[in-house]
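1st attempt posting a full record on here, be nice pls
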Amino acid sequence: MKQPHAPRAARRATERVAIYPGSFDPITNGHVDIIMRGAEIFDRIIVAILHNQEKAPFFSVDERVQMGREVFADEPKVAVESFDGLLVEFARRERAQVIVRGLRAISDFEYEFQMALMNRRLAPEIETVFMMPAESYTYISSRLIREVFALGGPIAGLVPEIVEARMRRTDRARESRP
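the predicted structure (as tokens):
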């Protein structure tokens, strides 16, 4: 019978790398919570910002990468990169063994479950780990942050200060255009 996994000692000899993919438009404190807790579990966690042509972003991919790097500048176990194409191919290039996905509510589960199963079919050597954000962040999504911000609502405490400042600066620049 073929063994599906390497012996425990062999697995421990390598660096434990996780990928946390998403659009992060913008990165929220719920994302930060999962990333920081992931950094306690894994040797390295890569925040992987997807180039997604289907969404109309608030920030460009380059801006999101730059903000992510600013947010995690003092966290040596956290890297921020962008990618396009299949997530599992990016994970292989980065030598990651794990994909981290956040679950806020039961409504997230069906989509995430389907994605995890497809990723397993494409790359059976890569595991998916689901993490829930702290209870105080379970209702936060990037989409909701953008909507509240667009309607003039307060977002302090829901996103890192760097992100809030950048959103205000970007909004002012858009308003001043003819």
